[in-house]
Design brief:
Blueprint: H1 3-90, E1 92-106, H2 116-128, H3 130-133, E2 141-147, H4 154-174, E3 183-189, H5 200-206, E4 208-219
């Protein structure tokens, strides 16, 4: 082969090789480099997602802490509600004695009229206890109880005691402006003496009208259980 032909072939081969080399580099730049760039961007996004997940975990922990505190408060509220329900179950209305006029306004033998002395005794009792017998909250219940000595029959004495109580009630309502809805009259007759009826002074003390002032109150204490009956001893 001539030298000129060989040189030409070598030049062609070199040109082809050079052309293929350039094409390979261009392929790498056009194919591999974009993939590398996308991988880098994906890694960056993964890092951002990891950061967001970490922040989300922190927030979840905070929410769980708040939920725990809320559960604790709910438990406290439920305990208070249970106690309130228990108190409500035990609630009952009680009439409690506030003050009383035990010595009472006294009456003459077989008398049902209110004497000036008896009126003064009632006035002094009411004036000394205005805070107990008045007021807008918890209006009191005033019980007027009539009593007698043991002279005469029980039935007659009951009626006398009743009329004495009614005389005092009328005085409270008409002269002392006590609400009639808050006044109750009862008669014990001769059944509840304060002194011995065998003496004149004792009988005079027993011919009386007592004034007892009560107030209604709600009690939440559990009622006391009755004591168990004692066992009878064995018989032999």
């Amino acid at each position: 082969m001539k030298t000129s032909e060989m040189s030409l072939r070598m030049a062609v081969i070199a040109a082809v090789a050079l052309t293929q080399g350039c094409a390979t580099k261009d392929y790498v730049r056009e194919t591999v480099d974009p993939v590398t760039s996308r991988v880098s961007r994906s890694e960056t996004r993964l890092d951002q997602v990891d950061s967001q997940i970490s922040g989300l975990g922190t927030r979840i922990g905070q929410v769980e802490g708040r939920v725990g505190k809320a559960d604790e408060r709910i438990g406290q509220v439920e305990a208070k509600a249970d106690k309130a329900l228990a108190d409500l179950g035990n609630a009952r209305l009680e009439r409690r004695l506030v003050v009383d006029m035990k010595d009472g306004a006294t009456f003459g033998n077989n008398s049902v009229g209110l004497s000036p002395r008896a009126r003064k005794e009632i006035d002094a009792f009411l004036d000394a206890r205005k805070g107990d017998t008045g007021g807008s909250e918890g209006l009191p219940i005033i019980v007027v109880a009539g009593h007698t000595d043991d002279r005469g029959s029980p039935d007659v004495n009951y009626e006398i005691g009743k009329r004495r109580a009614e005389a005092v009630s009328r005085y409270l309502i008409t002269r002392k402006q006590v609400d009639p809805l808050h006044v109750q009259t009862i008669s014990y007759g001769e059944s509840s003496p304060r002194e011995d009826n065998k003496t004149r002074q004792g009988r005079a003390a027993n011919r009386r009208v007592e004034i007892l002032v009560y107030r209604d109150a709600v009690s939440t204490a559990a009622p006391a259980k009755p004591a168990a009956p004692a066992k009878a001893p064995p018989q032999g």
